[in-house]
From TrEMBL:
Transmembrane segments: none annotated. Keywords: Signal. It comes from Lacibacter sediminis. InterPro entries: PBP_domain, Phosphate_ABC_transporter. It comes from the Bacteria. Residues 29-279 form the PBP domain. This is Substrate-binding domain-containing protein. Pfam families: PBP_like_2.
């Protein structure tokens, strides 16, 4: 009797151990299912278009994007429901090891495209040309120009981090001169309604001349001119045009990265592969950003007007 009790106990222990070790299987594939992703809010217009085209190609797939400050996207990597984040910073090997220790898998990260931080002013503003020293002075509160600044939040956003890391080289800006809006679209609307302010937004919100909504916004605001970083002629200014983002003549360029934690061939990998494909890279290009994975050629052309042929 004792022998059979020990056998029964061993069987029960094996069953309990097997149940404990068994993990839930993913219910998505490369073309079916539903996943949630977190995206830096400053990239919303271009990522929305990527998702729309991807889902039209794979009707049984659904990608639910949550647009939020960049710091929240990084925090979401520790959340089981978020497998993919799209941010402005590539994950470092140290960060990847940290997430691997926490999550049990090693995240992948790479470049998708390049964009820029645009400065926008009210249509009636007397100035729309600024030096980098003037921009830094306004951020530090030491400048002589009478403008206040508007960001998509005062902390935790990629635009704020860019201003501190890349424009001020690590210095903290003077928050007394900063107004915080809830989103990039609210930044543009605030500038349109309030003279005397300069807004900082991702160029995908304001730089596409083929987007009817952005054209309407450009009737209310202007994109500021900034010094060209590598132009041969002195005192040359530029805007965040596609060619000047590509050549980095525009001074405030930055990158778009993905970070993926997925150990099976699921929707996360499929969406990343799509954004890196010819179609996905063309969407970045047509959104007036610079694709990272496909050859991007700029050619100078000369157009000659001719009279139409009479029929």
């Amino acid at each position: 009797m004792k022998k059979w009790s020990m056998v029964l106990y061993g069987c029960l222990s094996l069953c309990l151990f097997s149940c404990k070790e068994k993990k839930a299987q993913p219910d998505d594939t490369g073309s079916t299912g539903t996943i949630h992703i977190s995206v830096d809010e400053s990239f919303k217009p271009i990522i929305e278009e990527q998702i729309q085209v991807f889902q039209s190609t794979f009707p049984k797939a659904k990608i639910i994007a949550h647009y939020k400050p960049e710091a929240d996207c990084w925090n979401d990597l520790l959340n089981d429901s978020i497998r993919l984040v799209i941010v402005t910073k590539k994950i470092t090997p140290e960060e990847a090891r940290y997430y691997a220790d926490s999550l049990g898998l090693y995240p992948q990260s790479d470049l998708l495209a390049s964009d820029a931080v645009a400065l926008v002013v009210n249509r009636n503003a007397p100035d729309s040309v600024f030096t980098k020293e003037e921009v830094a002075g306004m951020l530090l509160g030491t400048g002589k120009l009478p403008y206040k600044l508007v960001f998509d939040g005062v902390k935790a956003t990629s635009t704020v981090r860019y201003a501190i890391d890349s424009i001020l080289k690590g210095k903290l800006f003077n928050t007394s001169t900063i107004t915080a809006a809830k989103s990039s679209s609210e930044v543009v609307e605030y500038i349109a309604e309030t003279p005397g302010y300069i807004g900082f937004v991702g160029v995908s919100w304001i730089g596409n001349p083929e987007d009817s909504k952005q054209l309407e916004l450009l009737k209310k605001v202007r994109i500021a001119w900034l010094p060209c970083d590598s132009c041969e002629e002195a005192n040359t200014y530029t805007k965040p045009w596609q060619e000047d983002i590509l050549t980095k003549r525009y001074p405030y360029t930055r990158e778009i990265y993905y970070v993926l934690k997925e150990n099976h061939v699921g929707l996360g990998k499929a969406f990343v592969n799509f954004m890196n494909s010819d179609r996905g890279q063309l969407i970045f290009r047509r959104g007036y950003l610079v694709p990272a994975r496909r050859i991007f050629i700029m050619r100078e052309t000369q157009l000659k007007l001719v009279k139409p042929v009479k029929q």
